[in-house]
Design goal:
five-stranded parallel beta sheet; 26 strands; ATPase_dyneun-rel_AAA; Rossmann fold; single chain; 678 residues; P-loop_NTPase; alpha/beta
Length: 678
């Protein structure tokens, strides 16, 4: 095994390089905020010895004469000590900065501004953490060799999986295998070296391959970090750039097995490859300075834009749900935590949820604040509200249409879909407001069908075509990071839902109003949004066998309960099918994995929103069914008297039981009942 040992002089040089990076970072940041309190710190001056930092407290003390200066002076030696403390543990909270503990909050906020540092929230404590990569994510081949292989794949229909068999000479085989790895980095090949046909077609059709390759490179996390670092290093020598980027690579990158950190010689080689890739397509000049280039007037890369970091933090699902709940609690409406958990689990189970309820209960607001809490807003395009119109009779208003000239006019949802496809690591939320003002089946059936078409392809969840290339100019499929929530009011102005729609959504009811509950308004701390990665919301189960491997006993328990309920539902031909069973199992599996709710409470939500909405009618069979369900949900017998007040404290499924009582009493009073009548 190759081992590189650095001399004392080399270690001193590395410290000088890190000092240079921190100095450049300080020069580019006028303001930064502490992670836990979000308090501002202002960098007012930077010199060769250190940085001058002011905050609200220091300015106030200076104004009162309690402090000689409004600033604190932080030396680079102090920052370098903190840097060593950080990289030693790799994931650090304020407690890990021992020698520099007096300024640990500022240091964490400052280091967090580096493009290779991410934030993590664990047990309500913030950590800064080094992003990690493996050497197979860094190019081992020149761009010329990589693109030569791409040409062979296109023109000679070379199968990249068969390179080892096709090329017998070792030296050529090694070059081709390295080039193949480069194509995987650029996204032309999957992890299993399968050709990504859509990306390949876009490359073939593009008018400017430099623009296309620039975009592909800057979508790659490590290449993007390198580019962002180069933006900070404009004007310094080529040797210093290589040495600093090599040093950072040795901190961030492990070998392909993920065990040992990358050695100096490998780090330097991969760094030079990246820099030469950038130079060949015009991202940097001969001195590896970032260029302010406009390619063909359609794509702009500027140093300032490259410094905009993605403020995503790593967080567990348990902590994320707590954060969302606390964020919404600050907004003036009262929701129980289990309602927030239910909305999250429903979206994770399937990216289509219906929220029903009387007007004014906050259906629209909970969706808006839910999205906002994770950094999705109308301003950044990750949250979009689309009001449904009564005259919608097909999908053209939502998806788009071909006009009289033959040009495709994008609908609002299609615009969101295209944005979501460009930013696959971010969640996108669409709120269809009052979605049953028009018949849902008329304008939404295409989406429902495509949503059901999702399947696994080379480890990735993909859907059928939503809009064909002939219609839209390019093939459009449903992205996995798009979440659609519809709000509905059930009255004389709206249309009821068919079983087709109800089968394909979780239906969450918001009818509870507690006007007298004002406790949630008292002494609330301001909660800032947290930008999170799409992977926290992403479904990982499509078929029951996906979940069964790790949740065998849980799924057996769920199935036993559903069989009892289904036997009763068959009375009026309202029994559930495999789709509903599977989605209930997915919901409860996600809940169990993150320990969000007790089993009975989670299943109670599933019964309420996946099974009871199917029940409607006016005859004796419906009444008998509801009474049978009441017994299943409460382990009690139903009493006919209207003034009986039930205590569901010990009932297995209290929310479902309460809904059944409501439906029974409506049937007795009006001669007809359904889930939607309240």
């Amino acid at each position: 095994m190759e081992v590189d040992i650095l001399s004392g002089d080399e270690k001193a040089e590395d410290k000088q390089l890190i000092k240079l990076l921190l100095k450049r970072l300080a020069e580019n940041k006028n303001e930064l905020r502490t992670l836990s309190t979000n308090n501002p710190n202002w960098i007012t001056k930077v010199n060769d010895a250190g940085i001058y930092v002011e905050n609200e407290t220091s300015r106030e003390k200076f104004t009162k004469g309690e402090k000689k200066n409004p600033f604190s002076f932080i030396t680079y030696d102090f920052l370098l000590t903190a840097w060593e403390e950080f990289i030693k543990v790799r994931s650090a909270s304020t407690k890990d900065f021992i020698e520099t503990k007096g300024s640990s909050s500022f240091i964490m906020g400052f280091f967090h501004e580096l493009p290779f540092v991410e934030t993590e929230l664990k047990d309500n404590n913030y950590f800064i953490k080094l992003k990690e990569f493996t050497t197979d994510r860094l190019p081992e081949s020149t761009l010329k060799q990589t693109l030569k292989l791409l040409t062979e794949i296109i023109n000679e229909e070379l199968d990249p999986k068969t390179i080892s068999q096709k090329f017998k000479e070792d030296s050529i085989k090694r070059l081709k295998l390295r080039a193949r790895q480069g194509l995987k980095i650029l996204g032309f090949l999957s992890e299993e070296y399968k050709i990504q046909q859509q990306i390949l077609n876009e490359y073939i059709d593009t008018r400017n391959t430099d623009v296309f390759l620039s975009k592909r490179m800057l979508r790659h996390p490590y290449l993007k970090i390198t580019y962002q670092l180069l933006s900070l290093l404009t004007g310094i020598g080529k040797a210093e750039k290589v040495n600093l980027l090599t040093e950072i690579g040795m901190v961030l990158v492990r070998n392909s097995l993920g065990s040992n950190l990358m050695v100096h010689s490998v780090a330097q080689n991969r760094t030079r490859n990246i820099l030469n890739w950038f130079k060949e397509i015009g991202l940097v000049d001969e001195e590896w300075n970032v260029l302010d280039n406009k390619f063909d007037g359609r794509y702009t890369l500027t140093p300032s834009a490259s410094l905009v970091r993605e403020e995503q933090i790593k967080i567990t699902i348990f902590d994320l749900v707590n954060h969302i709940n606390q964020y919404i609690a600050n907004k003036g409406f009262f929701y129980r935590k289990e309602e927030v958990i239910n909305l999250f689990l429903s979206l994770k189970t399937k990216p289509f949820v219906i929220i029903s309820g009387i007007s004014g209960t906050g259906k629209t607001k909970i969706v808006q604040w839910f999205a906002e809490s994770v950094g999705a807003t109308e301003k950044n395009g990750q949250f979009t509200l689309i009001p449904v119109r009564p005259d919608w009779s097909d999908s053209s208003d939502l998806l788009g249409y071909v006009d009289i000239k033959g040009d495709f006019k994008k609908g609002k949802l299609t615009e969101v879909i295209l944005n979501a496809r460009e930013n696959e690591n971010l969640p996108y939320f669409v709120l269809l407001d009052e979605m049953n003002l028009a018949r849902v089946e008329y304008y939404f059936s295409d989406l429902l069908s495509v949503m059901e078409s999702r399947k696994w392809d080379e480890g990735e969840m993909v859907s059928s075509t939503l809009l064909s290339e002939k219609t839209a100019g390019k093939k459009i499929i449903l992205p996995n990071n798009l979440y659609i929530i519809g709000t509905v009011n059930m009255d004389e102005t709206t249309h009821p839902f068919s079983k087709k729609v109800l089968d394909r959504a979780n239906t969450i009811e918001f009818n509870r109003v507690e006007l007298g509950n004002l406790s949630f308004l008292q002494e609330l701390d301001e909660i800032e949004p947290v930008k999170v990665n799409q992977e926290l919301f992403a479904s990982k189960y499509l078929h029951l066998k996906d979940a069964y491997k790790s949740n065998e006993q849980l799924i057996k328990t769920i199935t036993d309960e559903l069989i009892l309920i289904n036997n009763a539902l068959q009375r009026i031909n309202a029994h559930i099918g495999y789709r509903v069973r599977d989605e209930i199992c997915f919901y409860l599996s996600y809940n169990e994995e993150s320990q969000l709710m007790p089993f009975e409470q989670a299943l109670d939500h599933c019964i309420l929103q996946k099974i009871l909405p199917r029940i409607a009618g006016s005859d004796g069979r419906v009444e008998t069914l509801l009474k049978e369900l009441f017994s299943l949900f409460t382990r009690m017998e139903y009493v006919e008297e209207l003034d009986v007040q039930y205590d569901f404290k010990n009932a297995p499924y209290p929310a479902s039981a309460a809904k059944v009582v409501e439906m029974l009493r409506r049937l007795q009073e009006d001669g007809f009942t359904s889930f939607w009548i309240s």
